[in-house]
Amino acid sequence: MNKNIIYIGLALVVGLGLGFVFFGHTESQILTESHNHEIGESSEKWTCSMHPQIVRDEAGSCPICGMALIPIAIDSDGLTAQQFKLTKHAMALANIETTTIGEASSDDIQLQLSGTIQVNDDEIFIQPAHFNGRIEKLYVTSVGQKVNKGQLVAKIYSPALLSAQQELITAYKMKGSQPELYKAVRNKFKNWMIHDAQLNAIETSGTVINPFQIYSHVSGTVSEISAKEGDHVMDGKAIFKVANLNTVWAEFDAYENQISALQVGQTVAISAKAYPNRIITSKITFIDPILNASTRTVTVRAVLNNSDHLFKPGMFVEGAIIRMQTINTNKLTIPASAVMWTGKRSVVYLKANVDEPVFEMREIDLGTKQGDTYEVLDGVDVGDVIVTHGTFTVDAAAQLKGKASMMNTNETSKTTAAVIETKSMTSEKFKDVPEVFQKELESVLYLYLNLKDQLVDSDLKSAKLQADLLLARLNTITTESISNHPKMMKDWKTISEQMKTDLVTIQNEDNLKSFRSQFSTISLDLIQLIEKYGVPIQVYVQFCPMANTNKGGYWLSLSEEILNPYYGAAMLGCGENDKIL
């Protein structure tokens, strides 16, 4: 009996022990754990595995792709909200290199400028009509035509010249008795630039010449035609203009932050895309004292010897200032490879801890680009250590960790697009352009936009097809509506021919990178045409400073949304709206 009681007691003790093990949590403990669990959940951050720039305080769906958000691991190593740490293994795989910022030296550095070849205005000459009349026949019919001194250029009907010839014939017959009268009549023809051979023919034949032949007293390449057959001309009015292309101007656009590094007399090394292995040196002869308010640039000019006629007006050129004359040795410079661009922002990654792979993003203000370096106005100091190789890898790591990066400025960034101020061009300048011609140019624009969209999709095969269609359309543009506007015709021929050449070149590009590089020149061609003639729709000029190995690249769009054709999905939103046409 006593043994049974002992066994029952032992069973109760064991049962209570097991019950405590499995069910021994009190209600207060359960509530506490539940409360702590809720606190842990509320402190978590959530992101998208495909779009790490998206960071939210609670679970949900990605506003870009719709995928379910995943939790972000909270840093536990005491780093600031802007800092993150890479493992040594990740550092080695990414081949990350850093540089300590120091002061600029006074070694030779270069300032790169872009520009075009222009006609030397100092070498433009006018062939005028020296008497009143009507053009019966004009032999100078196209811009670009070569004219030599003494060449027959026109036949003109002139009532005043007819009566003067009759007077000359009469005076010639009275030459023996009234030599002074004969001399005065003949001198009148010299004032009209009539050749002696023509006067002699009138005197000996006794017959007036009608219409009268006009011979050129200038030589050069026709740059403008101011009259056509049937027009009435007046004494002194220009029939055409010729340019001596033995010298040309290389005109560059210099931005505000580059002006202080420029001065007249500096040596500039000039190269053209058409002759990549040929460098011509010249001197800066002119710096425009007036800033262009719309482009924020000034014109910098150099005169080139062009006796071999290599340089054609309208040709794109690049200039490098071989040695800058004044260098502030207190300026900070950093390698261009360290800078990342997104819209108007330029950022670098600093190594926050010299002994540990801890990094943080820093926005900086840049000054002049000097060769392969940038002057830094604000954001970093002497002694700071910055990433110069592997910056994209570091940026990707920052995004994955939910830290400030190139794509998002802080860890709680939303997807709202930044509002970029744009500069609008007035349509007043296009009022004289025929609407039918603007429609022609609009059709070119739409084919260009198709080409741009294929580059956004990184589809080289389709992009080449669109380039072929664009070239075909450009070749069929009719210019009848602007045929009575010599300046418009001149500009159209110069720019459109350059664009055709660039489109032929792009057809030979066999890889996407080089194709995109050539696309930037085609974009500049079309921008020039639209700026000259306008189109009946609103067009955005957009710019990516990182394109073409940090040289920058423009493109056109009908929307202010940035869809980058130079990088496609890799950096689709990189760029800014520059202006509206």
UniProtKB/TrEMBL annotation:
- SUPFAM superfamilies in the cross-refs: HlyD-like secretion proteins
Which Pfam families does the UniProt entry name for this protein? 3HB_CusB, Beta-barrel_RND_2, BSH_CusB, CzcB_C, DUF3347, HMBD
Q: Which domain of life does the protein's organism represent?
A: Bacteria
Instruction: List residues of the CzcB-like C-terminal circularly permuted SH3-like domain.
Output: 332-394
Which controlled-vocabulary keywords does the entry list? Membrane, Transmembrane, Transmembrane helix, Transport
Give a GO molecular function annotation for the protein.
transmembrane transporter activity
- Residues forming the Heavy metal binding domain are 45-71
May I ask which residue range the UniProt record assigns to the signal sequence? none
Which PANTHER family would you find in this protein's record?
CATION EFFLUX SYSTEM PROTEIN CUSB
Q: What is this protein's name?
A: RND family efflux transporter MFP subunit
Per the UniProt record, the source organism is: Formosa agariphila (strain DSM 15362 / KCTC 12365 / LMG 23005 / KMM 3901 / M-2Alg 35-1)
